[in-house]
Amino acid sequence: MALLELEKVTKRFGGLVAVDGISLEIKQGQFVGIVGPNGSGKTTLFNCISGVFFPEEGQVIFEGQDITTLPPYKRAPLGIGRTFQIPRPFASATVRENIAVGAMFGTLGNQLSVDESLDQADIIIKRVGLDEHRGKAAGTLTPVEKKLMEIARALAMKPKLLLMDEAMAGMHPNDIDEMVAFIKKIAEEDKIAIVAMVEHIMRAVVGMAEKVIVLHQGAKIVDAPTKEALQDPKVVEVYLGHPPEE
Amino acid sequence: MKTQIKKYYPLLPVYAAYLILFIIGKNMTGMWQLVAMLLFYCALGQAFNIFLGMTGYVDFGYVAFMGVGTYGMALSISRLADTQMGIWIIAMGFLLAILMSGLLSVAVGAVALRLRGAYFAIATIGVNEGFRFLIEGARIWNGSEGIIFTAQLNKILGREAASALSTFWADVMVLIIAALAALVTMVYMRSKIGYALTALREDEDAAKVMGINVTKFKIIAFITSAGFAGLVGASAWALKTPYVFPPEVFEIHYTVEGIIIVLLGGAGTLLGPVAGGLIYGISKYYLAIFLPGFQLLIFAPIIIIIIVMFPEGVVGMLKVRLNNTIFERFII
Fold first, then answer.
1. Which residue in A90, A109, A135 is closest to B202 by CB distance?
2. CATH code for the part of the protein at B2-330
3. What would the pLDDT profile of A97-111 be if each residue is shown by its tens digit?
4. What chain B residue is nearest to A163 in terms of C-alpha separation?
5. Is residue A84 part of a domain?
6. Mean of pLDDT over chain B
7. Coil, strand or helix: which one is A73?
8. Interface residue A110 vs chain B (CB under 8 A)
9. Residue after which a domain boundary falls, among A158, A182, A200
């Protein structure tokens, strides 16, 4: 059974069809890249999966359960975690507290006390290497540290599916390689399915995704293993335009 | 066990401040009036902080909860005076104050808490005035004539005890309410409620996606804060002066004072309302004595300077300064 299934999901904003009848399947532990130019509907699709928007048509099914109209705070405990394109830390709280919030209200939320959540946070802080920033207010971190903290916060939720919105945007190529290796390692160890949204950093996609889904103007145009997908003529056209005529 | 107690260390400076205030007021002649006023401002700040400070939502109708609480006490005393309940009538009054302010907060919260930020603030401005005109216009609880219950209070307690209540015990009750509000704030801060409130104050959308039912936690903070406001009204207003008139208890001025106290001291901090209440109360009192007529002219720039210098409030600034010192664990 697929972990996440989207069936002909459509989301409109007035006359604009942001997501146009998209169906897709994500398996447990799978690493999927969602690629598409600006305005192709990636973020809207993410918002439909995490519950920020409800689609007008179609179904979102998570582990066999229809969650199409479930509010976002009820999806997190089921195991859907998410990071944002521009990190959104709880700025006045410390890094440790930020990460503990993930543990407190995530999939293990009902079982963990505040103290246990803080212990969980400490374990994850070690794992992602934020030790020296543990007691700092999250708002004072550098952008890259904030991204790392946001990923740590999402991991603390012990998700089954992690949606990463442009996790690498604005990062130095060396940092990207490091981040890719790190995310890959975590995903394998924790058996988390990761759906990473990428606009233009192909380096990240090639490095980690097993499968690539390409969106264009709200519709899915390609859904194939990474290498195949990136050589698909339709993808080349969307990204590079028509090959020059002789 | 010891680590559990350690978590509540930040209550120490709060309670020390209240104790010192009480000792000064009790032992120095002529000081009780000032101390009573300071206790009122601290209690107002401590109660308001649970909502305003912890959620970051500004409620301009907050005084309505104090007003309704005042009515709770007034109704209990004026209607039950002929029963044999004796001193329990006062306890009934507090119970009624909590119930009535709590109910009003559920009603207001159910509608207004769907709105965010500035929209919430605007929606709540009307609550206070609306409730006052409802009482006056529909002649609820004697309408604009208010309730005067001096005679009933004298009947229940006797003349002497009633006078001691209004000059001393009512203020002691305000102190106890402030201390209780601080305790509840501390318990919230150390529980999931506090973490959820911090998260939603900083970024409500991110909090939702993290699995936090933001509406639920906002309402918890709102009801708690309103309940304490009701208790403050019941003791600082109804018991202190045994009458209640709608225009006096639904006076937006007190809401504004509460906002200033919370922001001055440090919104969302435990010690902040005490610091804010003391700074606000003391400067207001002495400016009125030494520069009568000019107090507001001087007072406004003082507040502006403090807010500009310490945008996180006095305690917010202290928290940063004392980071990594032995005082760290006492200041929240």
1. A90
2. 1.10.3470
3. 999 999 999 999 889
4. B209
5. no
6. 94
7. helix
8. no
9. A158
